[in-house]
User: Fold this.
Amino acid sequence: MANKNQDVIDQKLQDLNNDGIDRRGFLKCMAWAGTGLVWTMSGGIPVSHAFARGMGKHAGKSADFSFVQISDSHMGFNKPANPDVAATLKAAVDKINGLATPPEFLLHTGDISHLSRADEFDNVDQILRSARAKDVFFVPGEHDVLDDNGKSYLERYGKNASPSGWYSFDHKGVHFIGLVNVLNLKAGGLGSLGGEQLEWMEKDVKHLKHSTPIVVFAHIPLWAAYPQWGWGTEDSAQALSYVKRFGSVTVLNGHIHQTMQKVEGRVTFHSAMSTAFPQPQPGKADSPGPMKVPAEQLRSVLGITDVNYVRGRHSLAVVDSTLA
Amino acid sequence: MRRQIKWRGRLATIQMVAMFLLLAGSQSLGASDQASTGQPTGQATGQPAGKAEVKIDNFSFGPETLTVSVGTTVIWTNRDDIPHTVVSTEGVFKSKVRDTDETFSYTFSKAGTYPYYCSVHPKMTGKIVVQ
Assistant:
């Protein structure tokens, strides 16, 4: 396990190096850990988990508010990688209800359902009703918009959104932007935001002060997590150019069923674990399909992401914890 | 708690996109989606006349390029744990979402090259060459 940790850390350093951030830059990022940003390298690794427990309580006490990100519940999936995704989603809700600081709302970053079926959405809605946080903000994953180009998803979740599903809202001084990058995908391409959504986003943030903390959330990563497997968004650079000027930008995504983090300037990217099944690390398998782990290990690779905001702090504290 | 939802739509653009999708969808004549009962169609005992197979495994179409004669029915079978689609890049055919072991077939009545992809995982691409 220790070797695995080291591998992941090495890989991170490599990633950072590839992106032109030098080691000093990396250490600077690490220094932020002391002011609230917790670095978690990979889902289910005990070090991260131990951090999560300690920091969760500590960060919770001084946080202005917190919210929880859940992702990729894939309701309806019943293959060997997890024959009971309803049970693990319930376990995620129990985990959320047990947090020292109750989150004020939940974000679900997509793949709510496995096959976009009404009964799958119904099941998720029913399970989430037992969460103490009553408000849930959704963005769609590609599994939620199969066959009907998102029509049934939008009827259910898009009431307060634009006709194509994107929206923004403000909560206690933080500006949240929910983006849709799973529609109208082109052959050979990656996730896509599209011109209309980009235009909207540019206008949406134009009036905001530089000091406004920004949280952007979408299903597919808004950075090149692993384009070979489609883990990226073609026009994300354009979207990010609109928020570069802000002091604190946190970008949350799902889709890749594992935690992964990256910092570019003042923008922190973070991907969450799934509540349903894990996927392999980039390039570590023939395909990004569901990864089967021994049944007793499953909950150690599934989880939730608790995000704490403290006014005046540079970054939001992002804390992953597994369902184990 | 103050929360303000903001959006600005472009209704005309959306209507045009919807119209395009409707047109694209209506061209899938000669195609059929079949939810099989778990039995994969056609084992690898040679290609029966007029039929050819593409297997979806590990997020890829195999073979990636398949050459058939005019009149051949191509049958795609999804053997992944994840649903996929088979969608012509030029709007010639379009399957519904195909879950594990489900099939889609299309009969090619005209010679030509037909590129296609999975609209759920667009990195997955393939080509049918009809001679």
Observations:
- Helices of chain A lie at 2-18, 23-31, 46-62, 85-97, 118-128, 151-157, 195-206, 236-241.
- Chain A is about 30% helix and 15% strand.
- Residues 1-61 of chain A have pLDDT under 50 and may be disordered.
